[in-house]
Fold each of these.
Amino acid sequence: MAQEYKNIAIIGAGASGCVCAYYLLKSCLDVTLFDIKEPLLTLLPTGGGRCNLAFAEFDFKELVKNYPRGEKFLYSVFSRFSAGDTIELFKELGVETYIQDDGRIFPKSNSAKEVREKLLKSINKAEFIKEKVLDVIPPGSGFKVITNKAEYFFSHVVISIGGGRFFSSLKHHIVPYKPALTGLKTDITYPAGIVIKNAYSTQYKISGNILFTHSGISGPLVYKISSINAYKEFPYDLNFNLLPQNNLPLQQLLDANPHKEIKNILAKYLPLNFIKVLLGELSEEKAHRINGKTRDYISDKIHNFKITATGTNKGEETVTAGGIDLNEINSKNMESKLYPHLYFTGETLNIDGFCGGFNLQNAWATAFVAAESIIQE
Ligand SMILES: Cc1cc2nc3c(=O)[nH]c(=O)nc-3n(C[C@H](O)[C@H](O)[C@H](O)COP(=O)(O)OP(=O)(O)OC[C@H]3O[C@@H](n4cnc5c(N)ncnc54)[C@H](O)[C@@H]3O)c2cc1C
């Protein structure tokens, strides 16, 4: 196969595969997309159907800090394609965006469906083959792509299979997969549905909401912790300050309300159902009966809340930690260091970010860098 003619297979028509196709098609290259399912279905549930496209951190040196795995690798990638470039990309595709108060970037329509439709329209010149790729074989100058139905030959291959199973003929190392951005099972449970707003993790120095579930804890703060600890053995202990902005003036409150039950005094600060379980029978005690030692015990329960994580909730994870070992990929162009003309994008790499649009940002940016590199080859 003559190397100057490029025909490119993109395996996986998800977020990163389709954006890679978009850039390659802009340079009039010959692109074939493979997917088991219809393209871009993975985009529909993102951001609860609103598609959180990226996060408004425009300094790439700060942006990389939101990736428990991949921070160093993404430095070069985001120096070339950062949050501003994501906004530009979607503008080009006809998707206007806005920045929410918390910094998350969404389409103005708040519709993942719109994002999918516009992106699909922009790649309609690519050939789409709805087949499952079983293996990719690198026989010297080109690649053989074997699907459940046929075999195909390409000069270049981009692997964009997200959390999909990797191909055995390619000798890349896989960092073991672990669930990340997920809820945690805990030793003690509290009534499901209770939310503690703006709790502070004293161990990880981060804050956010905690949501109690049937089997444990969830919510943005817990998701972040689960990602940081993706490779930590269970069980592990967690400590939270449940009222970080408010060092509870407990003695004053007790003195001012001597005949009130402690649960009714604290209900101004924390959900009543939660206090009842946290303090048990003590929550029914009248304020005037609380001595100094008990007061400090209550205060400690709130400002130094302890719970033990015993596992993750299967199926609740938003991303997968683990994937292709980054030591085997060139971060300047997303090319494999083992096989020339083989590229990787998105979540199939050992990269995962926190909640807030960071995972899609990784998908768009790595897709852009891979495409640029193929175009310039
Ligand atoms: C419920 C949910 C909500 C999310 N919300 C957000 C959000 O709002 N913002 C954000 O930044 N991130 C979000 N994420 C994460 C984000 O969706 C992913 O990080 C992103 O889709 C990864 O893109 P990708 O191209 O690497 O992989 P994917 O988008 O997963 O695409 C991989 C594609 O490869 C195909 N494939 C796999 N194996 C094969 C094979 N052997 N042959 C052929 N095709 C194959 C799959 O069918 C799939 O279409 C969310 C994830 C979930 C699950």
Amino acid sequence: MTTSSSIILNAKELYKSFGGLKAVNNAHIQVKKGSITGLIGPNGAGKTTLFNLLSSFIRPDQGEVIFDGEPIHQLSPHQIALQGCVRTFQVARVLSRLTVLENMLLATQKQTGEDLIKVWLQQAQIKKEEQENREKALSILESVGLIDKCYDYGGALSGGQRKLLEMARTLMTRPKLILLDEPAAGVNPTLIGQICEHITNWNRQGISFLIIEHNMDVIMSLCDHIWVLAEGTNLADGTPQEIQHNAIVLEAYLGD
Ligand SMILES: Nc1ncnc2c1ncn2[C@@H]1O[C@H](COP(=O)(O)OP(=O)(O)O)[C@@H](O)[C@H]1O
Ligand SMILES: [Mg+2]
């Protein structure tokens, strides 16, 4: 049985319109703690809009989002990240004119250095935090194979490496749940394989995932459970096996 404490993310009756277009039209989704959950659907189904609602990049017209037992739909993306829910973007948001290491350090949250009084009082503490963040960033870059690039500019990375860097950056904030918007899109097959391995490893360390992806091999091999969205609303959900054999889902894709 699914108890509420085994659910890390629970979104109910979400609505979002852009002008007359109902991009998300009464959608719901649940992510079990410790799972790798998939979100699929034809182009324009509202998947990215749903992610934007789940991570508060936009506010719902109606509905609620519960993360780890707390409502989060009134919070800012930064506050949600502090609670342990972080995301990546369909087009990776990597700053081209910062180095790879600097891009990683951008994610570090609420440093003592942000508070001016503490800046005067706690120089040593700030130095220590900066050093710890730097070591953590280097260790994560090492684990994803980007350590050789740490002083290269973000702009010098390939599309796939940017996706990897954006994913690596989410780990700087000790996430409980990572939302990935098309992690394999535009990525070469070798790097896709590596990205899948990293996701599996991070999941084994206790991080839950919700992944939007068009690459069905990636979705079917990674996910425990899959939600299908079409025209802003739920079409089906189930195990990879169930979804692969669901006639309604197949029809929605063939009509794409
Ligand atoms: N900011 C926006 N303003 C207007 N329309 C939008 C906006 N964001 C998304 N849409 C529209 O909402 C629908 C769903 O888009 P999206 O969530 O990006 O779908 P998906 O990620 O499933 O391809 C599309 O018709 C898209 O054009
Ligand atoms: Mg999208």
